[in-house]
């Protein structure tokens, strides 16, 4: 009887150690998986938050593109410039330079937005990327409208005047007074919000309003 007890003790001990090792391994694996999920969740939240911020920045730049030119954006001509150009020529040059500068500023913000959107696509999947495509297309439509106006301002045969019907119509398509909106501005705002709605699961929110 004593001999059998002596045989079983090591076996029980070994079995207990084996079970403890398995339990430890299970806990370690479970903990690693939990850590990975938490890490992925943080990365997803950060990517979604950055995309919301970046889309807001480019949306504001869309508004800036369409706002009336401010006095500080107007080109200051030298006395020699005034002597050698007509008022119509100075208007054309001033508008061309001001809107060209706005497009350059827009492109810088757009580059940042595209980089953030690409990162979000990698982390969050193509559905998020596709949700922002209508917003992207509408911002391109706006850029094309501004470029059409710049093309109109290029030197051509005959004098171009600020009160020419084609100029008035082209400027009307771009400019909005403060607080004013039109179909394009509403579409851009709505498309950005639709994109943000696709990010709600990653932001632990049920609405874009908070």
Helix segment tally: 8
Estimate the mean pLDDT confidence.
84
Total number of beta strands: 0
Our Rg estimate from Cα atoms comes to 31 Å
Please indicate the percent range of residues in DSSP E strands (runs of 2 or more). under 5%
The oligomeric state of the chains shown is single chain
The string of secondary-structure elements, in order, is: HHHHHHHH
Sheet having the most strands: none
> What structural class results from the helix and strand content?
mainly alpha
Distance between the termini: 74 Å
Give the helix proportion (percent range).
over 70%
Inertia-based shape: elongated
- Report the uncertain regions: 25-32, 34-40
Tags for this model:
210 residues, mainly alpha, 8 helices
Provide a descriptive summary of the structure in words:
The protein has 210 residues and is mostly helical. The chain has 8 helices and no strands. Helix 1 (2-66) runs antiparallel to helix 7 and helix 5 packs antiparallel against helix 6. The longest helix is centred in the N-terminal third of the chain and has 65 residues, at 2-66. The chain starts with a helix and ends in a 7-residue tail after the last helix.
């Amino acid at each position: 009887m004593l001999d059998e007890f002596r045989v079983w003790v090591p076996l029980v001990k070994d079995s207990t150690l084996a079970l403890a090792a398995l339990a430890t391994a299970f806990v370690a694996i479970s903990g690693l998986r939990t850590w990975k999920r938490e890490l992925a969740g943080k990365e997803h939240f950060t990517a979604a938050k950055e995309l919301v911020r970046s889309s807001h920045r480019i949306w504001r730049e869309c508004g800036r593109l369409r706002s009336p030119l401010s006095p500080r954006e107007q080109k200051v001509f030298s006395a020699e410039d005034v002597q050698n150009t007509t008022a119509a020529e100075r208007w054309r040059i001033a508008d061309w330079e001001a809107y060209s500068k706005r497009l350059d500023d827009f492109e810088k913000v757009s580059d940042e937005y595209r980089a953030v959107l690409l990162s979000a696509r990698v982390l969050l999947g193509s559905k998020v990327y596709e949700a922002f495509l209508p917003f992207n297309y509408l911002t391109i439509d706006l850029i094309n409208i501004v470029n059409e106006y710049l093309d109109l301002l290029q030197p051509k045969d005959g004098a171009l005047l600020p009160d020419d019907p084609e100029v008035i119509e082209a400027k009307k398509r771009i400019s909005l007074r403060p607080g004013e909106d039109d179909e394009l501005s509403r579409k851009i705002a709505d498309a950005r919000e639709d994109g943000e709605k696709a990010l709600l699961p990653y932001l632990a929110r049920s609405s874009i309003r908070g």
